[in-house]
C-alpha cells in the first residue's frame, strides 16, 4: 500500500541500496555528506545514538535524515537531539520535501519530550542557513568543528 505524502521509513535490506543511491547536486556536496558516508559515520559513532531514516514521497525514496536521538551531550556529541544530516536527492529538490521531512522530524522529537532540536552547517556559498532560518532555527553562538550550531526551540512552536 502506498503511504501518501512525505514520510519517514526505516532503512532496511529492501531499500538500503535505493537510499544509498540518493545524492545532492555537486555544488552541495561540501555541505551534505553522502548517505553511504553518513551510514558509515553512524556505525562508527554509537555514542551519538544515531537514528537514521529514509525520506519517502509516496513509495519513492527521495531523501535521508540522521539524528542523535536523546543522547547525553559530550565532547564531539551534540544533543540530546541533533540533526546530523538532512539530504534531499537532487532530482527532488525545490518541491518542499526538505521542509516536510524536517516537520516530521520535529513532530517525532517533540513527541519524545524534546524541548529543542540542534543542527549545524558549514558556512560557505550555497550554505543551508537560509533554509534553516526560514524554518525557525537560530544560531546558538557556538561552533562545532568550524560548523555554525543552530537551535530550534520546540516549546515556542
From TrEMBL:
Keyword Transferase: yes
PANTHER family on file: AMINOALKYLPHOSPHONATE N-ACETYLTRANSFERASE-RELATED-RELATED
Annotated N-acetyltransferase domain residues: 6-155
Protein name: GNAT family N-acetyltransferase
One term of GO molecular function: acyltransferase activity
Enzyme class: transferase
PROSITE patterns cross-referenced by the UniProt entry: GNAT
E.C. numbers: 2.3.-.-
InterPro entries: Acyl_CoA_acyltransferase, Bact_Acetyltransf, GNAT_dom, Sper_AcTfrase_N
UniProt superkingdom: Bacteria
Pfam family, one: Acetyltransf_1
Keyword Signal among UniProt keywords: no
Entry keywords, A to Z: Acyltransferase, Transferase
Organism from which the protein derives: Saccharothrix xinjiangensis
